Task: structure prediction
Amino acid sequence: MDIGMLPAVDEHAVIVSATAVKVWHALGETLEQSFGRPRYARLVGVVDRTASGPRPLAEGSAFPGFRVADAVPGRELVLVGRHHFSTYALVFRLEETTPGRTRLRAETRARFPGPGGALYRLLVISSGAHALLTGRLLAAARRRAERVR
Result:
């Protein structure tokens, strides 16, 4: 999947008081915990419904709703997925701003085809639910990374 062809949806960022390596590990653990429940995945018909592939997360890893398309430890994690209402990518970028401080960004890109996709976009994106959940995910990764001193 060429994620550059997917329209940008939004981007969120947090500053984490930890090295990029610690943030990377915390992000992987947070993603696995957050998306480890396949109930929603079954409901919307995601392609990847179970955890598989290498751990910690690397290219070819999967968990409900996502497959790792690219992974550069400590720098970038590209997740892709597809379900009945959307084709999407979630790109995490880590940048050490100063020693021991890392900016963690999450960029969402997605296409919502057809009437079902339009309704899904309204319910999930336009309602603000996606922004809220992405913010919570980043905050959880930040807390986890900062706790692992």
